[in-house]
Amino acid sequence: MQALRFLLPFLKPYKRLAIGALICLVGLVIFDLSIPRLVQRIIDQGIRVHDQEVVLYTGLLMLCISLLSLAMAVANNYLSVKVGEGVARDLREAVFLQIQDLSFGNLDRMQTGGLMVRLASDTAAVQRIVNISLRIGTRAPLLMLGSLLLMVDTSPSLALRLLPLILLTLAIVTVFMLRMEPLFLMVQQQFDRLNTVLQENISGVRLIKAFVRADHERARFSEVNTVFTGYSIRILRTISTMSPLLTLCVNAGIVLVIWHGGLAAIQGELTVGQIVAFTNYLLTTLTPLAMMAMLSNAWANGLASIRRIKELLETVPEVTDMATGAATPLSALGEGPLGVSFCGVSFRYNQVDPAGNGEKGEWILCDIDLAVKPGSTVAILGATGAGKSTLINLIPRFYDVIGGSILVNGVDIRELRQQDLRALIAVVPQETILFSGTVADNIRYGKPGATLTEVETAARAAQAHDFIVRLPERYETRIEERGGNLSGGQRQRVAIARAILYQPRLLILDDSTSALDVDTEARLQQALTQLPFAHTSLLVAQRVSTVLAADSIVILDKGRVVSQGSHEELLAHCSIYQEIYASQLGDPELSASMFSEAVQP
């Protein structure tokens, strides 16, 4: 019932269509139930007494009813499909918007394949259950109830004799439906796993081929596929067991009607027409039960899908805005580049364990105190796993701090609406994401109305213009899925151009020049200092050459700030920086040469 209550708000916009479908369905049921009575009339009042007029007029009436039934069925099908498709569309949109609203912490615990199944397969299952409920699913119980009443009206004694058989059939259907729902839930969970493995193999096909791991991935897919197939077979086995039992009940009912009805007819208690009508009503009682049983897989599948969608839509984002009206307006930040202050910031992933077993992640950042002045360029350097990316991901509130606070121009970022805060920031992540479309479309992604001239200007600053003009269609060249027709360095430069065109007040580059050669990176760093808009820059890097020209370099180690200063200051006093410098550049004269080139105007 909870699943059905959850679905009601999505049905509300289509209330009139649904009521229209049900009205057509009630009319269709009434017409269906009238046919056996008319057959009884033809036999008892027409054929038995040789009255052709009764046969003729009753036959014409049956023909008219059949035509009306056809019209009602067509109207019911049309309206049911409209309601089902509308509900499915609204559910897909709600699921998509929920995925967009969820925080990174929520998404980290969800599988991509599972989300795709909810968006596509589960919503389709709900569409089917709505469609079926407005057609066969409602028609079957109405037919069954109406037939039972007319059976009692036709012959109470015969109906009483068949009552145990009807109850037995109902019990069989109920038991099998209760068994089917958990099986379908397991099938959908395994389908999630199957989709996840498939999605990972498709996205990582180059890596799989490079490491010759096709056999391993084939075995991995085969294992998941075997489990999925096993649960599917259990469902089919259940259905195949149920069908013969229902057929046996229907046939037994017909035999009992003919037996007891025949004896009653011989004794003059029933007419032949009544026996025929009673038999038809019995079939109209048992057949809907069989139909409902056969449709139980769709219902079980649909109910399981509703529960899964409900679970997703009721997931509360870990990062939320303040109540409406309580948020600080953007005007409080003033104009110009943003200054960022980290005040005793601590953070760990999995602060709230979804399994409820009390386990939490280890601390990634510990008591970070750091000030980034407006308009400055600050680099964050450290080994892999030092917490660099985590630190900058806290600024746009991809995650919320566990301890301490982050201030932007003196305002706690938790007091700002997420949308307002992120509108001031451009982040170029480690993993470059490009969308299907042209090069120009990808660059103007954050500023859809940008002219081609603005796009080219941003591309020149990102050192991307030269390679773009060598592409077959220049800026109109189509980018393949995930940028497959561009090199790693080209993808990074397109992503940087996208961020530059956005003209943010805070530009964050998260190790996004790692695929560039030293000369190209040096030209890019020089271009970033000459952008035609005021901004603050945060550079996350592992290479010393990336941070040489920064106003300040922050050394992060094991989640703590261990030192901060200019290149020369750190080289003189910070042992960690000295080790990084020695391992990457080694020669002090080479380092000095690179430093002078990096800061040269």
From TrEMBL:
It is found in: Cell membrane. This is ABC transporter ATP-binding protein. Coiled coil: none annotated. It comes from the Bacteria. Its main location: membrane. Pfam families: ABC_membrane, ABC_tran. PROSITE patterns: ABC_TM1F, ABC_TRANSPORTER_1, ABC_TRANSPORTER_2. The lineage of its organism: Bacteria, Pseudomonadati, Thermodesulfobacteriota, Desulfobulbia, Desulfobulbales. Residues 19-301 form the ABC transmembrane type-1 domain. InterPro entries: AAA+_ATPase, ABC1_TM_dom, ABC1_TM_sf, ABC_transporter-like_ATP-bd, ABC_transporter-like_CS, P-loop_NTPase, Type_1_exporter. GO terms for molecular function: ABC-type oligopeptide transporter activity; ATP binding; ATP hydrolysis activity. Keywords: ATP-binding, Cell membrane, Membrane, Nucleotide-binding, Transmembrane, Transmembrane helix, Transport. SUPFAM superfamilies: ABC transporter transmembrane region, P-loop containing nucleoside triphosphate hydrolases. It is a multi-pass membrane protein. GO terms for cellular component: plasma membrane. SMART domains: AAA (SM00382). Residues 347-583 form the ABC transporter domain. The chain crosses the membrane at residues 14-33, 54-75, 158-178, 245-266, 278-300.
